[in-house]
Amino acid sequence: MNPLRSLILAAAGNDAVRRAVATAPVSREVVRRFVAGETVASALDVTGDLVENGLRVTLDYLGEDTTDRGLAERTVQSYLTLLDQLHDTGLAVDAEVSVKLSAVGQSLDERLALDNASRICAAAEQGGTTVTLDMEDHTTTDSTLRVLAELHRSWPSTGAVLQAYLRRTLDDCRALAGSRVRLCKGAYAEPASVAHTDPHEVDLNYVRCANVLLSGSGYPMFATHDPRLIEIVAERARWHDKAPEDFEYQMLYGVRPSEQARLTAEGHVVRVYVPFGEQWYGYLMRRLAERPANVAFFLRSLAGRS
Ligand SMILES: Cc1cc2nc3c(=O)[nH]c(=O)nc-3n(C[C@H](O)[C@H](O)[C@H](O)COP(=O)(O)OP(=O)(O)OC[C@H]3O[C@@H](n4cnc5c(N)ncnc54)[C@H](O)[C@@H]3O)c2cc1C
Fold first, then answer.
1. What average pLDDT is seen over the chain?
2. Which helix (H) or strand (E) holds 300?
3. What is the number of structural domains in the chain?
4. 144 lines ligand 1 (CB under 6 A)
5. Which pTM value belongs to this model?
6. Could you confirm whether 182 is annotated as catalytic?
7. Active-site annotation holder among 94, 134, 172, 203
8. 169 is in which domain, residue-wise?
């Protein structure tokens, strides 16, 4: 892993750094670039603006690795409130939610996570929208796909996420090509025994997986900011005779907004992944670790120059 990325990820786990960043007055500005505030109201404001600009949205209530039933319940309640308000504001047509099973109790008990995810799926259905289950590190993949299979019995539109860096993913794509699948490169530090570690291999696998998903009857969602992959997906979609509404691109809030606008103007469906909530720190650190330019932006802000 690149040393800067390791350093930032180490800082993410350091309490003193966390306190300093969280309380620095300029942090709020930096956070605002990648996170849609701490409350449901602020998330709805950002969603409204994006939808007005022709984008779709998936909302993520920040929080992961919950080992506390009370916290898991608070996360479920936040999703239920959010889904209610998406419905009431008419935004549910264009906005769905993304859920991390670890935030609703997966590490405590898979059954608890299934029950909690079912409550969120039921509320989403009632509100006129749907749910995508984020994918976390490889030790949770089997459990997450088992929960997904259960959810598919009642809510077949529930989306999965598959990570191109995992060696198993081509097979998972074949199994899920008839449903909604978000394909991403993968964001966790994984061992070579389970994951491709050469970025070029990851990209090649992304294209193989994209071909499988595009040849299926489901709805592929291509989550990447990578210009080469975006272009290859467009070419592969034409080759597979897919219309623009048969698949979508997804990008993170605050990352390549001009590319999001360009693809939308070209007639593509683009969905923005919008995180919100009080637990923004770990998410922000992962975004900074992904890209040196983001770190420069952050440091300039801390120095009061941006
Ligand atoms: C909508 C969405 C949902 C996701 N969900 C999950 C999930 O559930 N599980 C999971 O493990 N991971 C998830 N990820 C993260 C994903 O796995 C990658 O870690 C992340 O997207 C970075 O990979 P990339 O494909 O964008 O390409 P990278 O390899 O990070 O970047 C490739 C190229 O993209 C361009 N680029 C990237 N960032 C920028 C930028 N800020 N400005 C300008 N150009 C840029 C550059 O040209 C760069 O060389 C998700 C990502 C997105 C977009």
1. 91
2. helix 292-302
3. 2
4. no
5. 0.93
6. yes
7. 134
8. 36-279
